[in-house]
Amino acid sequence: MAKMVEGTAAASRGGYDYQLVETPPDMYLCKICHHLSREPYLSVCCGHTFCKTCIEEPPAPAKLSPALFAGLGIKKLKPAERFHFENITACPMCRTKPFLACPNKQNERAIKSLHIYCTYKEKGCEWQGEVNDIDKHLQNSTGCKFESVSCSNQCGKEFERRHLPDHAQACPQRKVDCQYCSITGEHQFIESEHKETCPKFPLPCPNNCSVIDISREDMENHRNTCPLEDVECPNHCSTVLQRQNLISHVETECPRRESECQYYHIKGEYQFTEGDHKEECPKFPLQCPNACEESSMPREKINEHKEVCPLEMVHCEYNNVGCEAKVMRKDQKLHEKEKMEDHLLLTKSKLDSVNQVNTEAMVKLEAQFDAKISKLEAQLEQKTQFINDMLFNNLFWAKELEVSKTNKWDESPLQIVKLINYTEMIKEGTEWTTNYYFDNPTSYNAAVHVEFHLVPAGRGVGKNIHLSIYICAGKKINKRSSTKSSGNNLRFELKLLNQISDSSHRSVSGSFNLRYISLMKEVYRNDTLISNEAIFNATSTCQYHRNDSVFFLVKFVHI
Description:
By secondary structure, the chain is an alpha+beta fold.
């Protein structure tokens, strides 16, 4: 009888290792593993039986001679049933080469019909059945009660199937309902984590009051009314006490409870009305500080009383001339009468001192007046210099214009251009453009339209570092200019003006021919006319950029 081992018919290699009820014929046993053949194959050479897994790794189909199978008494096989086992060079039994084998379906059916014991027979299982039925016996949910199974709740424990009902009652991961809120979950969760948060779980009052079994979700509401709960005084006096004592505290003990002054009828906190307010209440009754015969009076009347109180200590009326005596008001007249001669001497000394002080004050005032005069003269000098500078600037503009009326440019348009916010024009790339119209000497009743462009931000190689200019020109029909034509070439001059002197102006000029101009096009360009460094760098005698403005003089003329 074959040795029984624990396992199933689904073993991956070798034959069936089961305990048989009866000893099987030898032809059912694999000659390699000596177990019942699983998927038996018949050797073509010697007729021995082998498990497929014992001889195949992996099989490769091969064509076999029909005559060979006929001689062995085997029916013709389909191509898929013919195998040539290349990994076995010779038959394991007779060593014939090459080794050839074919499936033995008859033996396979007979083997699967053999009666065997359950693999858990030694544990007590009494099942017997065919090899075909062992898997159903073992793997069925109601199968072998001695088979080792894992808990379906995935708690990680393994046990025999027969112990499953007992384990299901004790499994820590079994599904149970919370007895308070009816939520479903694992037993270990319900009895641990959930119990700490369950809203319906009963809890005792933390203040040990008479109320018991308060649900967790109602605990906050209970504490809001519990007489033993510690609460803070609503007047924010920082006192903490039990709720049952709160009313008495607020009405009779709290230093911040509302109170009213009995003298002035002002309302406020008790600690204020009985403390700070009482120290300054204008109606609070006080005795005369000099203990005169006057009865108590409101605090607001004290100063008024002291002005007439006969026991008030007052200065002698001659204290402004040096008498330092202080006497009671009722004795003041007597003091003046007794000290009359001393008072006259003090008055004379005071007058002499006042005269001397007045003389010194006059000298000091004269010195202050002289200093103010000097300061005003300096300010006047600065403003005069500023006005002179403005007049000087206006004069050199006038001079420039006067020169333009007497030189050879007398028939050309002339324009003084002021570009304000010059740094902003550079930053934003703004251009300044003006238009001119000139007679065309080669065309009757036609004019040349000239566009003059100043580009502070620069163009081309002068981008961001130079002032650039460019001129566009084109023919304009029926447009007469204000200048007379005296030649085919048009000459221009651009002068950057020095704003603090009538010298050091920067001049550039150029010319272009009008004869061949028809459509508007660019006729002159200078990308590096003047560097921004030269424009912005000022000296004591030359400043082109001032108050974020620059000035240009533009002239055109025929030549």
